[in-house]
Design brief:
Number of helices of chain B: 15
Strand content of chain A: 15-25%
Helix content of chain A: 25-40%
InterPro entries (chain B): ABC_BtuC-like, ABC_transptr_permease_BtuC
CATH topology of the largest domain in chain A: Rossmann fold
Keywords (chain B): Cell membrane, Membrane, Transmembrane, Transmembrane helix, Transport
Largest sheet of chain B: none
Largest sheet of chain A: 5 strands, parallel
Strand content of chain B: under 5%
Distance between the termini of chain A: 65 Å
CATH architecture of chain B: Orthogonal Bundle
Subcellular location (chain B): Cell membrane
CATH topology of chain B: ABC transporter involved in vitamin B12 uptake, BtuC
CATH class of chain B: Mainly Alpha
Oligomer: heterodimer
Family (chain B): Belongs to the binding-protein-dependent transport system permease family. FecCD subfamily.
Number of helices of chain A: 10
Number of domains of chain A: 2
CATH architecture of the largest domain in chain A: 3-Layer(aba) Sandwich
Number of domains of chain B: 1
Radius of gyration of chain A: 21 Å
Pfam family, one (chain B): FecCD
């Protein structure tokens, strides 16, 4: 790796750039001889955070489904959730490849490292992880000022939402990811965090997995005040409406939200969290009447 | 019914009365298992509450859980298990190969291509079921068209060279469908992937027409059991069977049609629940003998019991998390069957 980077480092010694050093989410210190101006992102949330860090222009490769922000769609795709195109990544000569620690296949990341490509592990699973990730990406790309400003705005908006909604009467919420098999979010998913921020209690917060498959009767037995999904097709919730003894059905709180980024642990999640908080608050008002 | 079994390998059940007693006993066991399955739930519910909800109508969550979720699911599980075990039994006679199961002739592969295709297109439950049915029907017709010489030939088996055509055609079609399914799984977006995998391992949650499998099972049994004597003769070999007055083309076509119908209904209801169709007929053959007249209804009840047990475990053991029923069945079934094999030796 050093042999590969040495000529570049020598060339850049003449310029004003200094070396950058950042600790990643695997606890490794990643040091680059100069700020990264050719960045490959292997996860949609990483791509989004890079754009928020002001490093969008430096992103030369992304993963499939990197749809946020809109500008990210124009970057060539070099991976999807299960495979990464090693040849294309190497041919892009990236200064750094940012991988999602729990999402990108480990064997292929190891191979990247063996090929001498610097790898940075990122892991954002809670809302509080998003702003620090943006700041670190800013440091990596030498765009720290933009990153710091955007990260501060993000945290301020979250704090405002928390101050507004978190202390209102709590709602028991069942969040449906998928109807067949019936999947929900456990404590490890960022949606659980978003629900908490909006004054909702995820009825399956006791499950450690990110997206557990649960039985329908467990949902009925836990008697949610609101049933929420963000799927494109609203009819996936129709099955619940027959269970008229559920508070969620009685109060008309079976909701399909227009919040396409709610599962994305990166800055673009914000508008979706705002929608979630507003809709849950309306559900709360319907229960109070 | 005669009092003597035509294939005296292990003639444990030798009279009609004994057969009825056996079926009755298994039926009682089935009812007991189904009742227990309805009462058993996860940590969020209690058995006593379930019993109260079962016998007394009231607009409570427990009543809905018992009557709208557990009962339809248990009935569907029993029907699916019965259909698959019966179909496996028939297939083993039809292709005269102990490794045959309801999926040997490519039916599950066809159904999987249809169902997964529908899921990829973003279809709902009912459309996925229709996709599965269409795929199964297509596979069935393809096997029949390609293997009609084997199924319908009037020549004696020894005088033609295509006696193994049927099973080879089925296995080839299954391999082809398997390849298409693999491609679909690789190309599918993440959000559909879990649903597709669950469908392929068998999934009894949210069954749409829960009474259909049981109804179909009864109809198939009523049609097949009178053919029992001819099946017994056919199982010994086509040549001796036709010497004894059986018309192999007719009987084989009938077996193929009923086994395919049963499998198609099961797969359409619950996805490809594996294992039960192979193992239940074999296990029962070892316990009660190889008289098809006794074995086929017994397999149907035994298969139903096995799937109800496996589905209840899949629902309860990791509550509130749901496990795929096919995987649970293999986990409990493999050691049981191996024990049975070794014990008999």
């Amino acid at each position: 790796m050093i042999r590969c980077l040495l000529p570049i480092a020598l060339f850049l010694c003449g310029t004003a750039h200094a070396a950058v050093s950042v600790v990643d989410d695997a606890g490794r210190t990643v040091t680059l001889p100069h700020p990264a101006h050719r960045i490959v992102s292997l996860a949609p949330n990483v791509t989004d955070a890079l754009f928020a860090a002001g490093a969008g222009a430096y992103v030369v490769g992304t993963s499939r489904f990197s749809d946020h922000p809109d500008a990210a769609r124009r970057v060539p795709v070099v991976s999807d959730a299960t495979t990464i195109d090693l040849e294309r990544i190497v041919s892009l000569r990236p200064d750094i490849v940012i991988v999602w620690k729990s999402g990108t296949p480990a064997a292929q990341v190891d191979q990247l490292a063996r090929l001498g490509v610097p790898v940075f592990y990122a892991e954002t699973t809670r809302l509080a992880d998003v702003a620090p990730a943006v700041r670190r990406f800013g440091t990596l790309a030498g765009t720290g000022a933009v990153a710091a400003a955007n990260a501060a705005t993000f945290d301020a908006t979250l704090a405002r939402l928390r101050a507004t909604y978190a202390h209102r009467p709590r709602l028991k919420v069942f969040y449906q990811v998928w109807d067949r098999p019936l999947m929900t979010v456990g404590h490890a998913q960022i949606i659980d965090d978003a629900l908490d921020l909006c004054g909702g209690d995820n009825v399956f917060a006791d499950l450690a997995q990110a997206a557990p498959t649960v039985t329908r009767e467990a949902v009925l037995a836990r008697s949610p005040d609101a049933i929420v999904t963000t799927g494109a097709d609203a009819d996936t919730l129709d099955g619940w409406k027959r269970s008229t003894f559920l508070p969620a059905v009685r109060y008309g709180n079976v909701l399909t939200l227009d919040a396409p980024t709610l599962a994305l642990p990166s800055p673009s999640i914000l508008p979706s969290v705002v929608t979630l908080c507003e809709q849950l608050d309306r559900a709360r008002q319907r229960m109070a009447q | 019914m005669t009092t003597q079994s035509p294939i005296p390998r292990t003639p444990r059940v030798t009279s009609f009365g004994a057969a009825v007693r056996l079926w009755g006993l298994m039926g009682l066991l089935a009812v007991g298992v189904m009742l227990l399955a309805v009462l058993l739930g996860g940590t969020d519910t209690r058995m006593g509450d379930a019993w109260t909800a079962l016998i007394r109508p009231a607009p409570t969550p427990m009543h809905a859980i018992v009557w709208e979720l557990r009962l339809p699911r248990v009935v569907a599980a029993f029907g699916v298990g019965g259909l698959l075990a019966m179909s496996g039994c028939l297939m083993q006679v039809l292709v005269r190969n102990p490794l045959a199961d309801p999926y040997t002739l490519g039916l599950s592969g066809g159904a999987a291509v249809g169902a997964l295709g529908a899921m990829l297109a973003g279809a709902g439950t009912v459309t996925v079921a229709f996709g599965a049915a269409a795929g199964a029907l297509f596979a069935c017709v393809a096997v029949f068209v390609l293997a009609h010489r084997d199924l319908l030939s009037r020549q004696r088996a020894a005088h033609r060279d295509d006696a193994t055509d049927l099973i080879l055609i089925g296995v080839m079609l299954a391999a082809g469908f398997g390849a298409i399914v693999s491609m679909m799984l690789v190309l599918a977006p993440d959000r559909n992937l879990r649903g597709m995998l669950f469908w392929m391992m068998g999934d009894l949650s949210g069954v749409a027409w829960w009474a259909l499998p049981v109804g179909c099972l009864l109809a198939c049994l009523l049609a097949i059991v009178p053919l029992g004597r001819q099946l017994n003769l056919l199982a010994r070999g086509e040549e001796s069977a036709s010497a004894l007055g059986v018309r192999p083309p007719v009987v084989k076509s009938a077996i193929f049609a009923f086994a395919s119908l049963a499998t198609a209904v099961a797969v359409t209801t619950a996805g490809t629940v594996g294992f039960v169709g192979l193992v239940v007929p074999h296990a029962l053959r070892r316990l009660i003998g190889n008289d098809q007249r006794v074995l086929i209804p017994a397999s149907a009840i035994g298969g139903g019991i096995l799937v109800v047990v496996a589905d209840t475990i899949s629902r309860v053991v990791a509550d509130p998390i749901q496990l795929p029923v096919g995987a649970v069945m293999a986990v409990i079934g493999v050691p049981t069957f191996l024990f049975l094999l070794v014990h008999r030796r």
